[in-house]
Amino acid sequence: MYLFDLFLLFVSLLVLIVCVLVGVAFLTLLERKVLGYIQIRKGPNKVGFMGILQPFSDAIKLFSKEQTFPLMSNLNIYYFSPMINLFISLLLWMAMPFVTMIMSFDLSILFFLSISSVSVYTVMLAGWSSNSSYSLLGSLRSVAQVVSYEVSLALIFMSFIFLVLSMNLIDFMMVQKFIWLFFLVFPLAFMWVISGLAETNRTPFDFAEGESELVSGFNIEYSSGGFALIFLAEYSSILFMSMICVLLFLGGDLYSFMFFLKLTFVSFLWIWVRGTLPRFRYDKLMYLAWKSFLPCSLNYLLFFFSFKMMIFIFLL
């Protein structure tokens, strides 16, 4: 029986990973289509019906290109960083609450915070091991940005934990049966989305890829498969952050079709922001993290903590 459970766990994980990778492929197509229409053009429309096979032709093109290595690079770290980056972003999906078997664990929020913190190191090592000034600067800026916004992410998460009194994402689903948390803690939800944008290095916070001054950021020296893996990891993280947004404050009913519609809408929001907003100034980004989000999320945390303590004392 135990072996059968393990086999089922392996199959469900495999299905999840395949679905995530296919979702990532079509998210890139959606992004190119939406950005095309925002800029009054068509986007990919030649490969397959209305360009539906474009992501697969892109994948074939990228993986069939020649892999280049910078002459003075630290080859092992340079080679394995994109692989570990993709592995970590796929590992994050284990926090998605499975209703069956041993996948729905009680500390899924803690797991998410731990794994997302580790992903910073792959970016840093990818930039450093390329032995290029541009990639090193890109990785340093990216790491500074991600670390800054992780603080506010963790504090916002703690506020939600005090509200729900659980670290299991399934409980967030149960709590929102009658009213979404979005309506109860609107400012926190707003801050969470902005921090999620900064965490995934997306516009208007794409300083790691500041084309005007850093060419392409930490991935400048990567071509072929290495670049494709970094690309996959980024879009997998976007999908995951969209899923967490839906679970935390948009009801997040995993068993309904609406969950996937909400997830698609939040992912579309990520793309819409990219097509609309210009890049932030770097000092303003840091100011936003440390002078605005940090005090605000701390105040909310203290408020929810005292609120729960009052309820606890009243019940006693």
From TrEMBL:
GO terms for molecular function: NADH dehydrogenase (ubiquinone) activity; NADH dehydrogenase activity. It catalyses: a ubiquinone + NADH + 5 H(+)(in) = a ubiquinol + NAD(+) + 4 H(+)(out). It holds the Pfam family NADHdh. Keywords: Membrane, Mitochondrion, Mitochondrion inner membrane, NAD, Transmembrane, Transmembrane helix, Transport, Ubiquinone. Its main location: mitochondrion. GO terms for biological process: aerobic respiration. It is found in: Mitochondrion inner membrane. GO terms for cellular component: mitochondrial inner membrane. The keyword Metal-binding does not apply. It is a multi-pass membrane protein. Core subunit of the mitochondrial membrane respiratory chain NADH dehydrogenase (Complex I) that is believed to belong to the minimal assembly required for catalysis. Complex I functions in the transfer of electrons from NADH to the respiratory chain. The immediate electron acceptor for the enzyme is believed to be ubiquinone. PANTHER family: NADH DEHYDROGENASE SUBUNIT 1 (PTHR11432), NADH-UBIQUINONE OXIDOREDUCTASE CHAIN 1 (PTHR11432:SF3). Belongs to the complex I subunit 1 family. This is NADH-ubiquinone oxidoreductase chain 1. The lineage of its organism: Eukaryota, Metazoa, Ecdysozoa, Arthropoda, Hexapoda. The gene is ND1.
